[in-house]
Design goal:
191 residues; mainly alpha; 2 domains; three-stranded antiparallel beta sheet; 7 helices; elongated
């Protein structure tokens, strides 16, 4: 959930692919055949803790097969009356945690390009499919829009004040200059 990693990416991850010092986790996607390094200090700390407690294998962070995790999730879900399974109407599966993480990033105001990179998606379109509609996002957009309007209004007012000040300065300078020029060349002046 912290990394928005695919289950296969997390299961193949090796200890050395996490760095607590830099707060990064390196994931390899068998789907895209590409590596990506994401900034996830909480995940890096959790992996370091697992290693220190000798939870995991000699080289891999997670040693259990895919079905082991799915069985645990199913048992936990059923114990609290939550439907589990991709084919179960209204049910969920581990991949839904990836969707939830990416949706939460969007709700936190993370730009969609950054979410795309974090998820390891090839296109924005793919990322958009992951993001669920959230009523809060409409409120977030309204708040941001109001904030931008206030900033724009402030900038516009500042620009007009500055523009008016420059115009006023130029007018006064022209008036003084023409007064000075007129007085310098008037017939009554003596040199």
């Amino acid at each position: 959930m912290i990394t928005a990693g695919r289950m296969a990416e997390l299961r193949r991850m090796r200890w050395e692919e996490s760095n607590v010092r830099f707060g990064t986790v390196k994931l390899y996607s068998s789907k895209t055949k590409k590596w990506r390094t994401i900034k996830a200090p909480s995940a890096a700390a959790l992996i370091a803790e697992r290693k220190a407690n000798k939870n995991g294998g000699g080289s891999r962070v997670l040693m259990q097969p895919d079905h082991w995790f799915r069985d645990i999730f199913k048992e936990a879900s059923e114990s609290v009356d939550i439907r589990y399974g991709q084919t179960v109407p209204g049910g969920w599966c581990p991949h839904d945690l990836r969707h939830t993480c990416l949706t939460n990033l969007a709700l936190a105001g993370v730009p969609i390009n950054a979410i795309k990179e974090y998820a390891g998606h090839a296109s924005i379109t793919e990322t958009q499919r992951y993001l669920k509609f959230m009523p809060q996002s409409v409120e977030l957009a309204a708040t941001a829009s109001s904030r931008l309007a206030r900033i724009y209004d402030f900038q516009e007012q500042t620009f007009f004040r500055l523009h008016f000040s420059v115009e006023l300065f130029q007018r006064r300078a022209r008036t003084r200059l023409s007064t000075l020029v007129e007085s310098s060349f008037s017939p009554t002046s003596t040199c």
